[in-house]
């Protein structure tokens, strides 16, 4: 099999059209990329420093990763945990069930610039957290809510840090290697 760096990335829909069984029941018409999880100025000295400005040190050296550039004013970030946590009360796996899940994901979309502002606000809130408190993340707004450790919040709240549970969706059937800034 050709490497991803050579062959590029394809959506589930494209793979299915080509007869590739990749073991998924939900077939998406986009490619998933992890959203940046650090906010602040980006160091454009090199591709590696640019990656580290958004994802932390050492990330540019991990193998089997594909890096792309996005326009922070035109690209949106979505809460990926919605696919796990949001469960419409209709037949599981039905077209309507899948449509409602995707609609909820799209509802969570916010432009990258706004998302990065929210990450900064979340960090300021986390600096004030007390020992008897815990963070809960709102999957639609991406904002952290501080609650008592013994208190539980239901959907759309989630305990996982929104920084690492967000994604950028690329609606292009096939991203060829000329779209990649770096491929390892």
- Please count the beta strands (DSSP E, at least 2 residues each): 11
Mean residue pLDDT: 92
What best-fitting shape do the alpha-carbon axes yield? flat
Rg, Å, rounded:
18 Å
Order of helices and strands: HEHEHEEHHEHEEEEEE
Count of distinct structural domains: 1
Alpha plus pi helix count: 6
Q: What are the segments in which pLDDT stays under 50 over at least 5 consecutive residues?
A: none
Strand order of the largest sheet: 2-9-4-5
What is the CA–CA distance across the termini? 16 Å
Give me the secondary-structure topology.
Elements: H1 4-7, E1 9-10, H2 12-17, E2 31-34, H3 47-55, E3 66-67, E4 76-79, H4 82-85, H5 95-107, E5 110-111, H6 112-126, E6 133-138, E7 144-148, E8 157-158, E9 166-170, E10 174-175, E11 182-183
Antiparallel strand pairs: 1-10, 2-9, 3-11, 4-5, 4-9, 6-7, 6-8
Folded structure, characterized:
This protein has 184 residues and is α+β, with helices and mostly antiparallel strands. The chain has one domain. The protein is built from six helices and eleven strands. The chain has helices at residues 4-7, 12-17, 47-55, 82-85, 95-107, 112-126; strands at 9-10, 31-34, 66-67, 76-79, 110-111, 133-138, 144-148, 157-158, 166-170, 174-175, 182-183. It has a four-stranded antiparallel beta sheet with strand order 2-9-4-5. The chain has a three-stranded antiparallel beta sheet with strand order 7-6-8, with helices on one face. The two termini are 16 Å apart. The mean pLDDT is 92.
């Amino acid at each position: 099999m050709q490497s991803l760096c050579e062959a590029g990335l394809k959506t589930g829909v494209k793979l299915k059209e080509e007869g590739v069984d990749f073991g998924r029941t939900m077939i998406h018409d986009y490619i998933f990329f992890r959203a940046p999880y650090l906010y602040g100025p980006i160091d454009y000295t090199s591709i590696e420093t640019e990656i580290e400005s958004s994802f932390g040190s050492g990330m540019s050296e991990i193998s089997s990763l594909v890096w792309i550039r996005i326009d922070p004013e035109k690209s949106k970030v979505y809460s990926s945990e919605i696919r796990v946590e949001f469960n419409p009360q209709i037949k599981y796996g039905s077209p309507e069930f899948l449509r409602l899940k995707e609609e909820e994901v799209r509802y969570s979309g916010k432009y990258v610039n706004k998302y990065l502002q929210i990450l900064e606000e979340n960090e300021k809130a986390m600096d004030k957290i007390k020992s008897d408190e815990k963070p809960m993340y709102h999957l639609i707004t991406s904002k952290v809510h501080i609650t008592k450790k013994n208190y539980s919040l239901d959907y759309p709240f989630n305990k996982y840090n929104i920084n690492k549970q967000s994604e950028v969706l690329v609606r292009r059937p096939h991203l060829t290697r000329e779209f990649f800034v770096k491929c390892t």
